Fold this protein.
Amino acid sequence: MFLTLLLFLGSAVAIYLACEFFVNGVEWVGQRLGIGQTATGTILAAFGTALPESVVTLVAVVFGANADEKNIGVGAALGGPLALSTLAYSVVGLTLLGSRTLAVRRKEKLDVDAHRLSRDQGWFLGIFVFKIALGLVAFQGKSWLGFLFLAAYALYVVKELRTPTDAAQVDELEPLKFRPGDAHPSLFWAGLQTSAALFVIFIASRVFVHQFGAIGPWLGIPPQPLALLLSPIATEMPETMNAIIWVRQGKERLALCNISGAMMIQATIPSALGLFFTPWLLQRPLILAGIVTLAATGALFAMFRSGKITAIRLAWASSLYVVFALILFLD
């Protein structure tokens, strides 16, 4: 028990520290590649931080020895978007509310691209509805539809890269941690720091997830609810840590774009893997997770579309996750 708790806390600290290096490095990579800051958050940062949860799904559905193990992968594919649409956005709001700067806490409107965020949520809603609908029916050739999800993400990436960035929204970058004395670090050093940080995030996330796997049986939680409730909290740690770091730096735009981009990955890549290697038939807890995710995303879509994005409204997103957990345990 003591060793498990020690590894649990130690890996969480390692993820946070590695994310400090990651967000710093990925911003420089984006600049050196000529990618706008918003696209840096939605594509580069999101792709890197989404690796842990994608690996969880991949390992479970491809190498799972039985149906229960494969179900954990399907649960992770549904649990990831649930955690991002509720807990991750809530962390941004809570971090803003907990800021020592009164002006930050009282912001009536955050410095974000509301139109772009609402568009991302709209894309996610359409893809996710299709994803849930496929889980309710069985038919021949269903697995081939996984390629549609891959194509949808490729199209999203192309649109993000083609969307121009407002010059007024470009923040000054902090010195690269690997080269603090270099005002203009090369792509090599920026890429090296980002890759090294990702490697540490990947290893630490695997350790973190494994400890959750050990804690689950102690709490008497079955495999699939564990995958829905605890595994996503563990695997979404990089996005959450990135959000905290960027919000503390006054870059809430990057924080929200990172979460938004990660949601698009979670709606497509793990879904494709699930369709390729499992029957993709959703049981009651998974359908419930899908409904709560759609409710949370619908609320976010309305908020982003209205442009009235505040810390308090974001913080309330976690209430839907609490409701889901209570229904799951009381059912």
In short: Residues 187-219 form the longest helix (33 residues). The CA atoms of residues 4 and 214 lie 8 Å apart. The chain has a mean pLDDT of 81.
